[in-house]
Structures are given as structure tokens and as C-alpha cells.
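task queued by scheduler; priority normal; single chain, no ligands, no partner chains; default sampling; output format set to C-alpha cells
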Amino acid sequence: MSIDYVSLPAAELVFAVSGRERHIVTSEAAGVALEFAGGDPRLAHASALCRRVAKLAPAWGPYSREAALEYGPRCPDCAWILALHRGDVDEEIAAFTTVNGFDAAVITARLGEDFGERLLDKIAHDPALWQGADRLGPSHRSQLLGHTTRHLPTVAVCQECAEIGIANAHGYGATCPEVGIICPGCTVAADGVWAGEWEGTVLAECTVSAPCSVLTTLAAHYEISCPAVPVRDRTSVAEEQFTPTEQKGG
């Protein structure tokens, strides 16, 4: 009995999956992986732009930033490698930093106006960073951009707000009393079969307030003002159970 496979799209770039992140694979790398898998895309694992090994996802079609946002969190390293290659830096900065009005207000109140945008822009245009010969591979610049993106702050609210909404939890016009900003790159979130319905919930044992030391270190290097985390935030956040609000375009 023959088995019908979803064939690889005839495109320069295709999707691949590793863990929870969506990666970018060139058609050449996908073709090599497919050959090693005996032509079965379900068994094909390819080297992504970031050089991580990821499982091909031909059913998602050709890679594009717009399509990627529908399929879950993108690999920041892959995204930046491609953006630098194509000259789409401004568009990528916007994609990784644009959040809803509530989240934007919370982050701005804590870190100042356009903190993430300014930091990424400084890195993207730093003349001291080495690009490397492989235009579709990791570089000094793409590694810093990817690492920074993973540590950009995200807004977290209490579990009740996450489940039924702020208005239902605390009343119309109210703000979650436990709202705060955390570092998704440093914080541990429940993940895997064991987590069940709590998947994605921040674990109280390792909830790290933003800005984390990654951001404060980079901000100091690029001479961008970045307030330290108040002691009260460091202690109170660790005692609560939070759920991140809608993620940025990552």
C-alpha cells in the first residue's frame, strides 16, 4: 500500500520544528535531509539557519514571517539571520517588539519608551560586530540579536486574570494587582506532557523579573538607560504564580 506524503514546497525557504520553536531551513538543506530520510518528509531532520537540527514541516508551506506567526514561537536566531541577509532589520525589530496596548503601557512604565526597539537597533547597526562570510548562517550580530530577543520583557498577570480576563477577575476598568514584567528567556515555564492544562504557566521557583542581567548588561554596553529591578519586584514576583499574556511576534 502506498503512502501519500506532503511534498516539500518549491520554495527557497521552508519550515522546520525543534521543541516549541519554528525554524527556517533552506531548500538545499531540506533536500539533503529528505534524501537521507529515504524521501519521507515525516522522518527528515535538517540543519536550520541557526545550525540547530529541526524536523521538516512541509505541510506549513513556504516560509514567511507572516505565516510563521500563525504556527507558534519563531526561532529568533533563524529570524535574525534571514532579516540581516534580506535587509529586513526594521521589519524584524517591529515584529519582535510590537505588543498590545496594555502590555506596551506596562513595559514602557517600567523600562521607558521603546526600550526593546532602541536596544535591538543599536545591535543591528553596530559597526564593530563581525558579519562573517556565510550570509545565511550565524554571525556575531545575529547571535547578539537572537539572544537579546529571547530576553525581551513580557507582561505576566495572575492566574485568575489569565483564565477569565482582568475585567472578570478584578472588575471593569481595574488592573491586575499582580501585573509585572518578566524575562521569558530566564524564567522557566511549565512545558511537556506533565504540565497538562498548566502548560505555559510560569513556575514560581524560577520566575525572573525584567529587565534581567542580559538586558542590563547590553543596555550598559550600548549606553541605553535601563532601570534596575526593584528589590520588591524581585521578591514579590517569585512568590506568585503568573501566566504570560499574548506573546510578541516571536
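post-processing summary
- The radius of gyration is 20 Å.
- Residues 4 and 40 are 10 Å apart (CA to CA).
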